[in-house]
């Protein structure tokens, strides 16, 4: 089932090096207490995963990851960082055996689960066999749009995408309600200093 | 003038970034991209402007009130496309109803362009709204404070 005797192709080497860098960046993020560095590393993490998605032939996902993950999220995190401290609070590292046990058990279960996963690009994998195959076969007849991802996103699953847009809209609305300064119709602005007095 | 090189570079890049956003927006049928990515790229142009010239200058170009209106218009545009196809006698978001005579699914193309436009407008204005609210709460901080 699992074929581990794959030849060492350049693509495989590229994938391996990207995954190694992802792992290293993740560890660096865990260990750093400087929030600015953590935000920058998370941007690098997104950019690396975008490169990895390109190598998996998922250009649409890679594009989104590069634009949203590496671009706007990093900026928003920086802007959010302005409202808080620059450094994470120092804390006493306590060793809790049950926590370590839980982490290792979950990790082992996840690794065990990957053994049953279909190999990459397997045409018989559930993701490729049923509805995925139907989309690939039907799109030229049903939608006649060259990019199947767009056909699925905007037409076949148009209702889902409406929900996604509403999620984005709601997020913006929540930020306005929580951090907004006054109402749209010209309400009163209240500074934090004033609010503390009352 | 302070930070001259940054300001000139931002001015040079501003228009091409927006042009690229529009390309991604309208080319989603044919290549990677679509409303979500285009909206984010569009917002990034203004965020770059705010970083370089200060938030107050950006708010003169694109005021917060306009962004809230754009957020609502984007969502209503998307949902309105669905309602329009219903009024034309089809299902909700059944784009074939837009041009039922077409032999090459022109209605699908129109429908996808319309809803992607709604997505782009909502995403761009929401990202900028969130950025305005986060960045607008603290006065400019010192270079050493980072």
Structure explained in plain terms:
The complex is a heterodimer of chains A (198) and B (146). Chain A is mostly helical and 198 residues long. Chain A folds into 2 domains: 11-89, Up-down Bundle (Four Helix Bundle (Hemerythrin (Met), subunit A)); 122-183, no CATH class. Chain A contains 9 helices and no strands. Chain A has helices at 10-31, 35-55, 59-82, 97-115, 126-129, 131-142, 148-156, 158-179, 192-197. The longest helix of chain A has 24 residues, at 59-82. Chain A is globular, with a radius of gyration of 23 Å. Chain A starts with 9 loop residues before the first helix and ends with a helix. The model of chain A is unreliable at 183-187 (pLDDT under 50). Chain B is mainly α. Chain B has one domain. Helix content of chain B is 71%, strand content 0%. Chain B has helices at residues 4-26, 35-53, 55-61, 64-87, 106-135. In chain B, helix 1 packs antiparallel against helix 2 (35-53), helix 2 (35-53) runs parallel beside helix 5 (106-135) and helix 4 packs antiparallel against helix 5. Chain B is elongated and about 60 Å long. The model of chain B has no long low-confidence stretch (mean pLDDT 87). The chains are: A mainly alpha (198), B mainly alpha (146). Chains A and B meet through helix 3, helix 7 and helix 8 of A and helix 2, helix 4 and helix 5 of B.
């Amino acid at each position: 089932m699992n074929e581990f005797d794959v030849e060492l192709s350049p693509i495989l080497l590229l994938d391996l090096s990207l995954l190694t860098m992802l792992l290293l960046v993740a560890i660096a993020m865990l260990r750093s207490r400087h929030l600015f560095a953590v935000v920058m590393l998370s941007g690098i993490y997104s950019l690396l995963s975008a490169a990895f998605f390109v190598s998996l032939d998922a250009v649409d996902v890679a594009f989104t990851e590069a634009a949203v993950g590496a671009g706007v999220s990093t900026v928003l995190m920086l802007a959010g960082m302005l409202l808080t401290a620059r450094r994470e609070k120092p804390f006493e590292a306590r060793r809790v055996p049950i926590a370590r046990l839980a982490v290792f058990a979950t990790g082992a279960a996840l690794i065990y689960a990957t053994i049953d996963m279909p190999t990459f690009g397997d045409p018989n994998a559930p993701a490729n066999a049923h509805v995925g195959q139907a989309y690939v076969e039907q799109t030229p007849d049903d939608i006649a749009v060259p990019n199947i991802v767009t056909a699925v996103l905007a037409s076949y699953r148009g209702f889902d995408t409406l929900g996604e847009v509403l999620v984005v809209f709601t997020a913006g609305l929540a930020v306005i309600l929580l951090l907004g300064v006054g109402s749209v119709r010209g309400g009163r602005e209240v500074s934090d200093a004033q609010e503390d007095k009352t | 003038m302070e930070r001259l090189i940054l300001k000139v570079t931002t001015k040079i890049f501003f228009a091409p970034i927006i042009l690229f956003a529009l390309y991604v927006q309208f080319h989603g049928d044919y290549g990677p991209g679509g409303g979500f990515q285009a909206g984010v790229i569009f917002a990034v142009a203004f965020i770059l402007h705010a970083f370089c010239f200060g938030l107050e200058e950006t708010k003169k170009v694109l005021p917060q009130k306009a962004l809230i209106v754009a957020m609502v218009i984007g969502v209503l545009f998307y949902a309105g496309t669905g309602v329009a196809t219903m009024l034309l006698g089809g299902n909700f978001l059944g784009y074939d109803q837009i041009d039922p005579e077409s032999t090459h699914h022109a209605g699908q193309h129109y429908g996808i362009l319309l809803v992607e436009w709604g997505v782009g407008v909502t995403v761009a204005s929401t990202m900028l709204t969130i950025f305005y609210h986060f960045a607008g709460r603290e006065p400019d901080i010192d270079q050493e404070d980072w």
